[in-house]
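Subject: Protein record for review, amino acid sequence with backbone structure tokens
Category: Structural biology, sequence-to-fold work with a learned token vocabulary.
Format: Residues in single-letter code; tokens as whole numbers, each standing for a residue.
Body of memo: The sequence and its backbone structure tokens, given next.
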Amino acid sequence: MRIKQDHRLARVRYRSSPNFDERPDADDISLIVIHSISLPPGELGGGHIEALFLNEFEHPVLDELRDFCVSPHLLIERNGTCNQFVAFDKRAWHAGLSSWRGRCHCNDYSIGIELEGTDSHPYTRAQYRKLGAVIQALLARYPRLAPDAVVGHLEVAPGRKTDPGPAFDWPSLLKDLAFVV
């Protein structure tokens, strides 16, 4: 897996979300936040997740989310397919009210990766493999990133968010990244 000069993953489908803006410092990419999402909540498949990130609200399941303008940099589907919505040098709107190690506004300096799933439903092996490959590419491309800067949404928004949840297998991810647990 390779990140191109335009801060997009090579050989990955790119659909530009309107929900992004400029980072305060495009060189300060120093955190990866892992999320989970299912739409409708608890249901997997159906294509509604991508529609949400693109502000395409044609389906009734998205009506109540119409006022939310959200986007991750990436979505990894259950089968391991990876879709990019925001270039890594731009600020995606994924973490909301957040802080990490005393720094607020995590969107300013983080990359958001959504996994199709729920807090309680195990993620697929294909998702872990793709996530591991993506994180390795990000660590190689952005020098301020480090293995200990890969966190769950619950770590940057405690009490407000719980994803990727107890079903997320952190040891499996670390194994894919070849880090010692």
User: Anything to note?
Assistant: The first helix runs from residue 48 to 53. The chain has one domain: 13-176. Residues 5 and 17 are 19 Å apart (CA to CA). The domain at 13-176 is CATH 3.40.80.10 (Lysozyme-like).
